[in-house]
Design brief:
Elements (H helix, E strand, L loop, with lengths): L4 E4 L2 E4 L10 H7 L2 H11 L7 H12 L14 H5 L14 H17 L9 H12 L17 H19 L2 H17 L18 H16 L7 H13 L33 H12 L10 H9 L15 H14 L1 H18 L17 H36 L3
Length: 411
Amino acid sequence: MLGELYANGHEVQPRRRLDLRYDTRTVRQLLGTRAGEHCWRASVGEGRPQSRPLRDALDWLAAHQNEDGHWDADAFGDECAKADQTACENPGLVSHDVAVTGLALIAMLGADQEQDMGYPFFEDEIDAGTNWLRHQQDPDTGLIGTKVGHEFLYNHALATLALCEAYYATKSPLLKRTCQNAVDYISRARNPFGVWRYEEPPNGMNDTSVTGWMILALKSAERAHLTIDSDSFESALLWLDEVTDERTGRVGYTDEGSRSSRIVGANEHFPAESGEALTAIGLTLRLRLGQTDRSANPILEKHGDLILRVLPEWQAIGFANDMYYWYHGTLAMREMGGAYWDKWAAPMRIALREGQRQDGHERGSWDPKGPWGFSGGRVYATALMALISEAVELKAQEVEIETALGGLGYL
């Protein structure tokens, strides 16, 4: 990570090779030295071009936030009426307000922390959103949201991830207690010697999709120096080994090599073969949980090669869109880097551009065309695609920073 940099006047000496994937603030401090500023300007120019598509996406989210701070999965169109605009279409399910609020906050936090990207600040929106999520927490159990249906743990995981990211950025003592209680609930929901699915207390069933969000939330909590159950990480790796088909590299949903789930009457017309979301989740988790040596872990490249067989492609009419897969695929390929990232990022950029609405009050958003669009709606789709856009831009920024640092002799 980047914390091991020490400055002495204008001389900054890294103790080890910089990891630019997670936190560029210290690098920007480094480049704030006279020598660094000179090299930076020579390398990338006087200013960074702003991404209009990402600005539009974040502006759309800001315009559709309820005045109490939350994003309404099914009634976000009410915000259009307040602006004397025709209501935006494609609502999600009423049960997902907590989840889509978490996703929208994560997107805004990502833009707000990367100030050099030239985006507007979203301090008011972030404050309102985090405050709303805090007040959705049960003070006795730590659960964020209500314990209704089988998706409540998805909601809780996304809310926890958003709040831990906000706490990492602000170190607010109010958020610390909320985050710790949310993390403790995640620990109680994990199956002993297993991972997660839909129940708390757990009933012995596990699945890769819920587990992916839980581990991302716990890794964010770990980065924020909260107390976590580190046994969860080892259990997650053991689960991935159990559900991975070593021949194909495919990570399964609830058993070895099984495909993503579909719901009869809702999204079974979206072929599961059009995505490798679970494999992407598995690859991201393996890398973030320390399995980074490809020679010692050949399954990493099997995962990566399988993902590259199903590249993003926006279809205005068709059933190949899968934003859930694209988000997790982007995380995984960014972690893999190199040729894996290059082969993924090019079609991902095209899909982002081709799918983004350019008309009316829906300008900046994405139609929720994909297997889970019926559930999350337009807010879900736009938040996910904004997060993908940020990842694509940040990866480009990393390359520029590496070029600048290389000129200074730090890499």
